[in-house]
Amino acid sequence: MDRYVAIGEASEALGVSITTLRRWEAEGKLIPERTAGRQRRYDLAKLKPELFHAAPQDRKTIAYARVSSHDQKDDLERQKQVLELYCAKQGWTFEVIADLGSG
Predict the structure, then answer these.
(1) CATH number for the domain including 45?
(2) CA-based nearest residue to 65, from 85, 37, 42
(3) How many domains in the chain?
(4) Alpha-carbon distance values, 56 to 27, 46, 50, 53, 62 (Å)
(5) 11 is catalytic
């Protein structure tokens, strides 16, 4: 039996925002049914996260490290090391971006 749900419940089922569902609809990735009042309804049987999310190997995590002055340059290096270790332990493909502010 098909179970149709409103956009809020569908977004929770997929773990994405309502805005993302609307964008996927505009891109043609997802076609909701419409009620007589033109409200979107989604078939839970067709909502499979793997159909919409990028595969893990296609994703890249961006880690951001920042300090506000040149006096904290050593802290910035420590932040970068901690972020690199954490991302590597998670098994993620990642890039660390560092920012040294002017204070």
Answers:
(1) 1.10.1660.10
(2) 85
(3) 2
(4) 21, 21, 10, 9, 14
(5) no
Q: Which domain holds residue 80?
A: 56-100
16 close to 52: Cβ distance less than 8 angstroms: yes
Q: The whole model's pTM is what?
A: 0.48
E-assigned strands of 26-89?
Answer: 33-34, 40-43, 61-67
- Give the domain-ending residue among 52, 68, 87: 52
Question: What is the mean pLDDT for each group of 10 consecutive residues in the chain (103 residues)?
Answer: 83 87 88 90 78 64 93 94 93 91 70
Torsion angle of the four alpha carbons 20, 21, 25, 26, in this order, in degrees rounded to the nearest 10:
-30
Same domain, 34 and 16: yes
